[in-house]
Amino acid sequence: MAHILSNIVLIGMPGSGKSTVGVILAKLTSLNFIDTDVLIQVSHGQTLQDIVDTSGHMALRGIEEKELLTLNVRNHVIATGGSAVYSPIAMKHLKSDGIAVFLNVDLPTLELRVCNFDTRGLAKRPDQSFADLFHERFILYTKYADVTINCLNATPEKICEKIIKELGLEKRKAADESGG
Question: Which residue from 11, 36, 98, 157 has the least number of CB within 10 angstroms?
Fold first, then answer.
């Protein structure tokens, strides 16, 4: 019998809606929800920006990788930090029991949403612009994505509908409800 992947792993840029969509998606699919940025902040007692300010962006990436590698959950929606895709080992771990869903949002939309670029706690080089970060990470998001969801002009609820349809979860839910 084939192993059914139990987690939905949301990847994408800061401002793409991973946390917002993740909470709604978890409710709609009766899954638990984890926001890995929150896990990092709780386990380290610091905001992501404090980590970047005191230890640098590479330290944040290292902390994120360790946190992702310690995740051992089933039946969760996992909202990753935007920089999770920099770690091949962490992505392999997440995808071992999860399907990676890339929330694809265009750069102009992201620039409107992310007004706190310099204080948001992004794992980026100090000299790196948001556009540079977008182009660098886009390649990685598409590399790791099992499914890409076009989020242009879509509400979080509509994005969840697209994910559920793309993953065939409405069929599984209907089968569960009918007892088969």
Answer: 157
